[in-house]
Amino acid sequence: MAGEFAKMRHLRIGLIAAAMVIAVVVLALYTVVSSPGFSPDEAGAWNALLAGMSLGIPLVSPLLLAVLASRQTDIEHQGNGWLLQSTSGLTPGAVCRAKLIALGSIVTAVTLGTGIIVLGAGRLLAGIRVSLPLGHWSGFILCMLVVNLAVLALHILLSAKVENQLVALGIGALGCVAAVFSQGLPATLAHVTPWGYYALARAADYEGDRFVALPLSYPSILVLAIIVGGLFLLFTHRFDRQEA
């Protein structure tokens, strides 16, 4: 585990994580600024920021998560790290699990930190003084975190299996399109791809001349976590039985 964090210092993982935070915060605030009907004194004022994050996270996260997984995994392909790790008793599957824990901690900090920063920006910059819907806000951040971690896990598997990282990055770019496009699809179709779950975790949207809160699909997000968690364990255990 310590080895994975040591690798991060040379891979500019912190810079990528900072880009994720800045991009989502800017998009959330832009939603407020570009909305002519926004009023900081309205009861649903926080919905504007929730809608901004509901668009911003799926717009940038799939590609940047692919970059994180690719950079952290490609180092093993480049330096024959799978073999070197095996000589010290770490199987390829164990290395992938360590990468998920290490990168997952970064993604967790980024997702939670983004929610807190946008909350502070809403108070200080947007001047929102009405009561915060804390339960809905917290549920939204939790759902987005689960989807982010699920997408990260799938990209770690992909980057470990396919040596050409352009494939993983290309799929990450397509994931951004699928995540945003899924917001206009029926919920049934949004379940088809992992990126569609960003749409199921959407907390608010523009309706008529104002922003309204949307129900969060907690059961669907839970099912995603179970399925992806099971697949990740299955495939990494298969990696354990393969030659490095």
From TrEMBL:
The chain crosses the membrane at residues 12-33, 45-68, 100-122, 134-154, 166-185, 216-235. Keywords: Membrane, Transmembrane, Transmembrane helix. It comes from Microbacterium betulae. This is ABC transporter permease.
